[in-house]
Amino acid sequence: MPALPDSVKSLAESYRNRRVMITGGMGFIGSNLAHLLVSCGAEILVVDALLPNYGGNPANLVGTEGRLAISQADQRDRAAIDELVRGQEVIFNLAGSVSHLDSMKDPVTDLEVNSLAQVILLEAARAHAPDATIVFASTRQIYGRPDYLPVDELHPIRPVDVNGVNKMSGEAFHTLYHQVYGQKTVSLRLTNTYGPRMRIKDARQTFLGIWLRRALENGPIEVWGGEQRRDLLYVEDAAEAFLLAGSVPGLIGGVYNIGGGPSITLDALAERVIAAAGSGRAEHHVFPPERKRIDIGDYFADDRKFRTASGWSPRVDLDAGLARSVAYYRERMSDYI
Amino acid sequence: MPALPDSVKSLAESYRNRRVMITGGMGFIGSNLAHLLVSCGAEILVVDALLPNYGGNPANLVGTEGRLAISQADQRDRAAIDELVRGQEVIFNLAGSVSHLDSMKDPVTDLEVNSLAQVILLEAARAHAPDATIVFASTRQIYGRPDYLPVDELHPIRPVDVNGVNKMSGEAFHTLYHQVYGQKTVSLRLTNTYGPRMRIKDARQTFLGIWLRRALENGPIEVWGGEQRRDLLYVEDAAEAFLLAGSVPGLIGGVYNIGGGPSITLDALAERVIAAAGSGRAEHHVFPPERKRIDIGDYFADDRKFRTASGWSPRVDLDAGLARSVAYYRERMSDYI
Fold first, then answer.
1. Torsion angle of alpha carbons B305, B309, B314, B315, nearest 10°?
2. pLDDT tens-place string over residues B125-167
C-alpha cells in the first residue's frame, strides 16, 4: 500500500465509507486509483472485464486483498451494469481502450468498448444511481494535431484515429447526460500518463510502457521522430485528479485538461528513461509515410481550468516518477511481461 | 418522374451509366436522389432496411420501377454490405435516423444505426470499393446551440442529444477514413430539409412533415416557441447538392454546410404552410423546461464554402417548395399516413 500523500489526506475524509465503483479498475490508472481509495477507507467495487490485450491485470491489485470487491463484468452488458451501479455514490469510469493500432484493425470493437459501453453505463446510472458523480477518463488524443500550444479545452476536437472518434463520442455522452438529465458527470482529458501498473508488454496503452521495459532489459528504445514535445503525467497525480473530480462539487458538468510537468522532446525523454533505468539505448527512426499522416506533432496541455477549479497540481516530477516506475517494475517484472 | 432541372443536365452526363448506391434510398432525401439519378441514366442500387418508424417508405420509389435495383439490407450487417458495395463508383450514404426523441428513448439503437453502421459501410468500401466516392448525409444538429450566426463549418461541435453525438461520430469516421486511407469521402451538414417524400406521420424526421399534414387535414399546427429562426432547404436542391458532392473532385475530403433560403421564424413559417395548404391553424405553445433545455434557439447556415467550391445554390424558394409539397401530399396522402 503506498503511503497516502499529505495533500490527499484532506481528500481522504471525503471518501471514507463512501461507495465508489471503478470501471477498468484492474487497469493502469484505475488500479492506482483503487489503491488510493483503499487508503481513504472507501467502500470500493472494482469492475473490469479483463479483456485480452487491454490494460486489466489482476496483479495491479496486489496489496488490496480483502479491502475491495471485484466484479469481472463487461461494460457492454447492460443487465450486469444495472446491478453494479445500484447504490454507488461515485463512479470512476475508466474502462476502455486507448490503442491506436487495435482501433484501426478492429474499429467495431473499439466503438463498442469506448462509445457504446459509455452509453450503457450512463443509462444504467440514470436508472439506478441518478445522484452518483461519474468521472470519465477522456484523453488528449481527441484534439488531434494541435492548432496552437499549449492546448486548452476550447481547441477544436479533431481525432486522427478510430479510437479518438470513439473517445470523443464517449466523452460527449457524459457531457450530454449532465445537460439533459442533470447527472453529475465530469470528464478529464488526460495527457500521456505513466508509472507503476501501466502495461509494458507493448505500446498498446502508452509508448512509455514499452520504452521502460526495453530500458530495463537493456534493449533498444524505438524513438519515432524525436523532436515532438509531450507533457508527462505521473499516475499518482492523475489518480489524485480523479479523486478531486469525484468530490469537488464545482467541477460537475465540466470537461478538463489534465496535463503534466514541463514539456520535453521524445529524444530527451528517452535519455531520461535510460538514465533512470541505468540501462538501454535509444534507436532513432524516421516516420514512414503511413505513420507520418497520423502523427500529431507536439502536444502539451493548458490545464489551468482544472488547476484553478480544484487546487490540483502535479507533485511528482519526471525523474522522481521514472525512478519510482523503475523500482516498481524491477521488483515485479514477471507480473507484467 | 420529375423533369430534370436545366442546371442539373450538365450533372446528368457525369452520372450516365455510373454505378451508384444509395443507402437509405427509400427514405426522404435518398428517394428524391434516386429519382434524379434515374433521370441521369445512372445504374442505381437502393439499399434500405425499412426499419419501422424510420423514413424508409416503398411508396417513395413509385415511378422508378424497373429502373433501379433494391436491396432490403441493414447497414449494420457487414457481410451484406460487403457484397453490395462491390463495384460501386459513388455511394450516397443517407441511411440513419434523425429523431431526437427516439435517440433519447433508445440510445443504443441510435448509436448502432448512426455510428456503428457508418464504420461498417466505410470498412466494407475500404475492402471492396476503395475508389468509390462516398457522400455522407450529416446534419446541422451536431452544432447544438449556435455561438454565432450564420453558422459556418468552424463552429464548435456541441450536440444536444444522443442523435447529435452519433451523427457527429458518423461524420468523423468519414473524415478520418479519407485522411488515413485516402477514401473519397464528402460530408454534407444539411439544414432543415422538406418536400415531397418526407415523413409526415409524425415529427420524427422533420417538424415540417407533421406541420404540413396537420395543415392539409385542416388541423392545428403546434408551434413551440415561435421566434426561433431557421433556413429551409427544398429536397430537390438538397439532392442536387449530393449529386455535386459525388462528382466534383475538388470537394473530396471536405465537410460542408448546406443551407437553404433566407431564414424565417417558426411563427412566420407556420403561416406560410397554412397559406400554401389553404387550411390549418397555428397553435402556440410555451416550451416546457425539459424541452427548453435542449432548444437550440436560432440556426441558419453559412454555406459559402460549398457554394463556392461547387457552384451550387438552392433554386426553389419557400413558397414554391411548399406549393409543390402540398400538391404531392394532396395526391398521395394515403401512402404517407
1. 150
2. 999 999 999 999 999 999 999 999 999 999 999 999 999 999 9
Contact between residue A195 and residue A336 where contact means Cβ atoms under 8 Å apart = no
CATH class of A6-196+233-260+300-315: alpha beta
Dig out the grid coordinates for B252 from the structure: 473530396
Among the partner residues B157, B162, B179, nearest to A157 by beta-carbon distance = B157
Contacts of A306 (CB under 8 A, 6+ apart): A188, A241, A251, A256, A257, A258, A312
Chain A residues with beta carbon closer than 8 angstroms to that of B160: 176, 179-180
Instruction: Choose, out of B145, B154, B171, B180, the residue to mutate when testing the contact with A (most A CBs < 10 Å).
Output: B180
Nearest chain B Cα to A178, which residue? B160
Nearest to A115 among B123, B169, B176 (CB): B169
Long-range pairs for B71-75 at CB < 8 Å and ≥24 separation? B71/B45, B71/B46, B71/B47, B72/B47, B72/B48, B73/B47, B73/B49, B74/B49, B74/B117, B75/B23, B75/B47, B75/B49, B75/B113, B75/B117, B75/B118, B75/B120, B75/B121
Would you say the ipTM is above 0.90?
Answer: yes
Q: Element (H or E) spanning B129, and its range? A: none
Give me the total of CB pairs closer than 8 Å, taking one residue from chain A and one from chain B: 78
Which CATH architecture describes the domain B13-198+233-262+300-315? 3-Layer(aba) Sandwich (3.40)
Q: How far apart are CA B198 and CA B32, in angstroms?
A: 10
Radius of gyration of chain A (CA): 19
CB < 8 Å to B116, chain A? 108, 111, 116
- Angle (CA) B145-B150-B156 rounded to 5° is 45
Q: Does A296 touch chain B (CB under 8 A)?
A: no
Rg (CA), chain B: 19
Which residues, in sequence order, are CB contacts of A257 under 8 Å at separation 6+?
Answer: A140, A151, A152, A153, A189, A191, A301, A302, A303, A305, A306
Domain segments of chain B as ranges:
13-198+233-262+300-315
Q: Could you please report the per-residue DSSP string of A198-242?
A: ---SSSSS-HHHHHHHHHHTT-EEEEESS--EE-EEEHHHHHHHH
Is A169–B107 a contact, with Cβ atoms under 8 angstroms apart?
Answer: no
B294 in reach of chain A (CB within 8 A): yes
CB atoms within 10 A of CB B182: 14
Helices B117-128 and B162-181 cross at an angle (nearest 10°) of: 20
CB-CB neighbours of A288 under 10 Å: 9
Of B111, B154, B179, the CB nearest to A119: B111
Look-up of cell digits 514512414: A288
* Chain A nearest CA to B11, separation (Å): 33
Q: Which of A169-178, A202-211, B27-36 has the lowest mean pLDDT?
A: A202-211
Cα–Cα distance measured from residue A195 to residue A23, given in angstroms and rounded to the nearest whole number? 19
Residue range B239-246: mean pLDDT, rounded: 97
Q: Does the pLDDT value for residue B4 go beyond 70?
A: no
Q: Which of A116, A156, A293 sits opposite B111 (nearest CB)?
A: A116
